[in-house]
Amino acid sequence: MKLVFDGVAAGYTELPAVHHATLTIAQGEFVAVIGPNGSGKSTLLKTVYRALRPRAGTVLLGDEDVWAARHRDVARRVGVLGQDPPGGYDFTAREAVRLGRYPHLGAFDRLGATDEAIVAQALERTGATGIADRPLSTLSGGERQRVLLARALAQRPELLVLDEPTNHLDPAHQMSTLSLVASLGVTVLAALHTLDLAARYATTIVAIKAGTIAAAGPPAEVLTPAVFRDVFAVDGSLVSDPVDGRPRVLLRELRG
């Protein structure tokens, strides 16, 4: 599904955290939004899944205005893993993932065999089958993160919006999670703090500084020494991994 931000401004105070964001994301792209803390990454993502209404501009899913569409329709099309702490810690992991199927049900429908198979597959794909029957309250932060990703996958969305999806994950699960997301064939919009992971898995990088899009394009065009200095106040280089040739980021303390 194509996603378009057209002059979007949004925020919680009189001074918007995002200013006039204009961006088109093609169907099937994996877009990583990068920027320092407080730059507006999460604010931009929230305008997509109806957690924060834009003050100006339009967010389009395909040709439909997100904020003019029915909430249930957006929930069917957009899977979300957000930063806000989830409720329902008395749920088991499997019950939490089942919630991803409810946007597809009628008011009085119950989950059927097909829904349960989708739930089981989502748990398996995120490596969470072994913890499926444990309460969320007993899970580590990384385990809970994998369950919440499974819930988003269970929606079978056309667009995945992921706010720091590798938060709390160890390196192996960071890589397996982003590799899985990249393999799904859906449009992905993910806020990532780790620049090396963004370079390795995203097809497009969007760098945000103080609520404004500073650069957008393929990793090789965005992850330049000038952007590292201007946006992140570090020296950096984009290099090729000597093993698989994929892009990697090297960062150094800014000098001079």
From TrEMBL:
**SMART domains on file:** AAA (SM00382)
**Which residues does UniProt call coiled coil?**
none
Could you name the domain of life of the organism this protein comes from? Bacteria
Where the record annotates domain ABC transporter, the positions are 3-235
An example Pfam family from this entry, by short name, is: ABC_tran
Repressor as a keyword of this entry, yes or no, is: no
**SUPFAM superfamilies with a match to the protein in the record:** P-loop containing nucleoside triphosphate hydrolases (SSF52540)
Q: Does the keyword Membrane apply?
A: no
User: What are the UniProt keywords, alphabetically?
Assistant: ATP-binding, Nucleotide-binding, Transport
Question: Example GO molecular function term?
Answer: ATP binding
The record, for InterPro entries, names: AAA+_ATPase, ABC_transporter-like_ATP-bd, ABC_transporter-like_CS, P-loop_NTPase
- Per its UniProt record, what Gene3D superfamilies does this chain match? P-loop containing nucleotide triphosphate hydrolases
Name the PROSITE patterns for this protein. ABC_TRANSPORTER_1 (PS00211), ABC_TRANSPORTER_2 (PS50893)
What PANTHER family does the database record attribute to this sequence? ABC TRANSPORTER ATP-BINDING PROTEIN, HEMIN IMPORT ATP-BINDING PROTEIN HMUV
Protein known as: ABC transporter ATP-binding protein
| Record organism | Amycolatopsis rhizosphaerae
Q: Specify the taxonomic lineage.
A: Bacteria, Bacillati, Actinomycetota, Actinomycetes, Pseudonocardiales
